[in-house]
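Recap from last week: sequence in, structure out.
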Amino acid sequence: MTSEKLKELLSQREGTQIEFKLSKESLSRSVYESICAFLNRRGGHVILGADNNGQIVGINPAKVQTQLDTLAKDMNNPQLFRPTYYLNFEPMEIDGKQIIYFYVPESGQAHSYKGIYYDRNQDGDFELRSTEQISNLFIRKSKMRTENRAYPAFGLQDLEEEAFEALRKGIRANNPDHPWLAASNEEVLHSGEMIMADPETGKSGLTLAAILLFGKQHTIASVLPTYRIDLLCRINDTDLYDDREIIRCNLMIAYPIIMAFISKHLPEQPYIEGMQRFSLRDKILREVVLNLLIHREYSGAFPASFTIYRDSIVTENWNIPFVYGHIDLQTMRPHRKNPTIANVFSQMGIVEELGSGIKRMFKYTPLYANGKEPIIEEQDVFRITIPRNPILSESEADGSRKTTTKTTTKTTTKTTTKTTQKILGLLQDNPMISINELALQLELTRDGMVYHINKLKKEGRIKHIGPNKGGHWEVIRPD
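Predicted structure tokens:
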């Protein structure tokens, strides 16, 4: 969220998708009622530190971090929220005053706060008191798939031609007689049921599936401000990373980027099955990547991630659980979370029958990882862990260590220098900023930020004056 966009929100009145709260010293119960109502209705923007007219009052700077910690803790507390929901809270400074901004997406589930269900209208948040009101909420949610939500304000001009070309390239390689090859972009969208009517307004528009698959980056950001896929390689540097890419583009473009990242950091492992020779790495991880893209619940702010470690590959994405707990071949119950998105990938011959991906993971992972099986866990966060045991000869291992050390040192030095300059700039702009706020703005873990801060202190480039809470930073050497 930029300062300009935030001021634009503040200039508007409170309504079905905008809510202002004072929260100068502490959070009120009504903040959570609004979050619950937005989750249950159509989502919305919340600004803490503004009055009902959108005038910035500000939050006591000494209370900002406390409020951030409280929000994060309470949203993850099943005694308060059922089901719990991950949100991204963003501290900001506007006209010299501290505020907290966050966006609440529309959820595919019905949520309650302290056992009470809330909904949203122009007048604000209201309790659902009757059995009929609560039943209607569940009926509405059960029929709604996030991917089918229509956006009448968007049209073909908001989609990426390159994404349609990527689709046709994939189809052509699999089925040169496919009807989509001769169809226009609009005909493809209609055929794939990616243009639908909004049930509340009756107006037709692109669905979220169409925007995710083919949308321009700014189009996706307009409907899903927190959307991203984080690719990380942590083979050597486990505190930070050896390499990182953040993807915010559409899924047609994202898929080959992720596969290229895998090829870049994981060695081939050839395998012969019958008369067919293929890569175990690609066979397994293609299914993992497709699961990450197709079965993700896109309404949540939790970022999807694909992380390569020395001994495993781990993916995480937000999820509406169909079953809870550990999944294996005996307990799995195939359930396609985003069938429209899955259908588009299936036209390219990438996705086959439902459940076949998990079967492949269990069939080939033991061959790839010296007998170890994949670990698949379905909770609010869906997690897949693929173990890996790369076996190298002594000469290969020695050569790999030399190459990796040289590459990693060069990459890490370049990355650290950029990060250092960003940190120093933020400290100069806001000496009261906390480590958590720095980590949030630079998209680093808190441990990673502590590492950089301690390094700058040892180098004598910064120092902290006063107590941990309420003190301030002083930049001694900015260059």
